[in-house]
Amino acid sequence: MPADAVVALPDSKVDSFLKESMHLIEFAILYILLVLAFLTGGSFTKKLNIILAFIAALYGVTDEIHQSFIPARSSSLIDVAKDWIGVAAAYYFVYQARFGGRFKLLASFLKRIENIKK
Hints:
Layout: H1 13-41, H2 46-67, H3 77-99, H4 104-114
């Protein structure tokens, strides 16, 4: 690998915070996309919701394992925890909107997505 293949960014606390918070956001988005896909494809149950959260969280683990083999990349259990926190936060909102009667705007959106198949 050439020496200039990896771009080094200036050390900035804001840059670091943004990059680290992306773990939460990326895996929350992955879970939400899985939810949306399954809402349009069939019956969306509490059990399926848990399975989708588990799949998104498990993907976070495999992503960190993959990164451990890539030069100039790192992996850590802290990153896995951030991935899981992102999934858990999104799971909370989806669960409460779909099954708990809260977050009416989100519940309405999920219902509209579910009705696309009909």
